[in-house]
Amino acid sequence: MLRKAYAKINLGLEVVSKREDNFHNLNTIMAMIDLYDELYFQKDSEITLETNINIGDIGNNLVYKAAVLLKNTFNVNDGCRIVLTKNIPMQSGLAGGSSDAAVTLEALNDLWKLNLSIDELANLGAKLGSDVPFCLFKKPAILEGRGDVLKQFIDLPEIYVVLVIPNFSCSTKDIFSNHVTSPNDNRFLKLINAIQSKDINNIGKRMFNDLEVTVDKIFSEEPIIKIKSKLLEFGASGAVMSGSGSTVYGITNSFKNAQKIKNLMKKEFKNYHIITTKTNNF
């Protein structure tokens, strides 16, 4: 059984307040993009995980944790062999690990014939990470809570995306622990209105991420601002950081424009990984 785990981007991310459990309340809008990891699942006597990269302690990997959680929660006798091919960079704000975990829950639900609903899987997924429920639902959506509470699905026009993945990664825990919340200025509502207009230029102008300023404070030379400025200079309709970083992306209305921006960015940022892709609406 072969499955794809798609990356996500945040079109908007508002940090509302810090919670008593040390997480933060968020308003965010997420969409899947056409960049994915691949996972192969085969029934076996034990749970094993093979990967194409070094992931360190297997017990800390979200794929392995998802499989163990499902097995233990429902007293499954079978195990599974899982082969993970990583294409989504880790600690980049693209939810690669969360998407891998979501696909693992989906696939093992089928492989082990558990017949769980997507809502039941999402409740389990929230125990693994805040982005896992969205990665199960897959459709563009507005989310609240820790980013794990679905408020409503939204319709997006087809958006072409230029991903700029710097040569440094961001720890979500470190970024949030250093973040200072700022007053609400209705940016989130304005972004929702822009999305409803289906106008990519309007959407681009309204995209934002409260965590950008925190990342630029932690890393020297304000890398997020520099990447965003160049994306806009080279023709992107808008540019914003995804999640807690470090990926920054620009949007445009055609593949031709995206390729042009990508080529110019590759000359400017020779040590960064730059990819063109597009949103997936499923």
Structural class: alpha+beta
**What is the strand tally?**
11
* Rg (CA only): 19 Å
Shape call:
globular
Count of individual helical segments: 10
Mean pLDDT, all residues: 95
Element-level helix/strand string: EEEHEHHHEEEHHHEHHEEHE
How would you describe the overall organization of this protein?
This protein has 282 residues and is of the alpha+beta class. It folds into two domains: 2-152, Ribosomal Protein S5, domain 2 (2-Layer Sandwich), CATH 3.30.230.10; 157-280, Alpha-Beta Plaits. Helix content is 35%, strand content 30%. It has helices at residues 62-73, 96-111, 118-125, 132-137, 172-177, 187-197, 200-206, 212-218, 223-233, 255-268, and strands at residues 2-18, 24-44, 47-51, 79-85, 141-144, 149-153, 160-165, 208-209, 238-241, 248-252, 273-280. Strands 1, 2, 3, 4, 5, 6, 7, 8, 9, 10 and 11 form an eleven-stranded mixed sheet that branches. Strand 1 and strand 2 (24-44) form a beta hairpin. The longest helix is centred in the middle third of the chain and has 16 residues, at 96-111. The protein is globular and about 55 Å long. The chain starts with a strand and ends with a strand. The model has no long low-confidence stretch (mean pLDDT 95).
